[in-house]
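Figure 3 (text version): structure tokens given as input.
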């Protein structure tokens, strides 16, 4: 079983920045891609960003390209999401998850139960 703990959310004004972190623990695969997802009130969870084990492949939701940056530290089993130029429509609970295959992350096929997520609220 893999445990995921997200942190770093908060309340920020439009145009502001936040940096999210997600630490994975437990029985992680020997190598795995990680991703960020979000769920806004009344909406389904959606994919936001994915990064491969070595960081050579990265993929973003179109609406966050140029504003969000995903990165990871494999020594710490941690993935980050730097969010700049935040917009009110970015308001959501943000989650991370993992899969051995990179494109399964993009397809939202994940291996671990969802964590508690971290709330991001962007005021206008």
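Below: residues designed for each position.
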């Amino acid at each position: 079983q893999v445990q995921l703990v997200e942190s770093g959310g908060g309340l920020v004004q439009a145009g502001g920045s936040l940096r999210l972190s997600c630490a994975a623990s437990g029985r992680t695969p020997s190598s795995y891609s990680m991703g960020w997802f979000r769920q806004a009130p009344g909406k389904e969870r959606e994919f936001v960003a994915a990064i491969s084990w070595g960081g050579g492949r990265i993929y973003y939701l179109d609406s966050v390209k140029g504003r969000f940056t995903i990165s990871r530290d494999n020594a710490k089993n941690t993935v980050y999401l730097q969010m700049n130029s935040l917009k009110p429509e970015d308001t959501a609970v943000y989650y991370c998850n993992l899969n051995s295959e990179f494109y399964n992350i993009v397809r939202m096929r994940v291996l671990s139960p969802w964590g508690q997520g971290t709330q991001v609220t962007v005021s206008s």
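The two ends are 40 Å apart (CA to CA).
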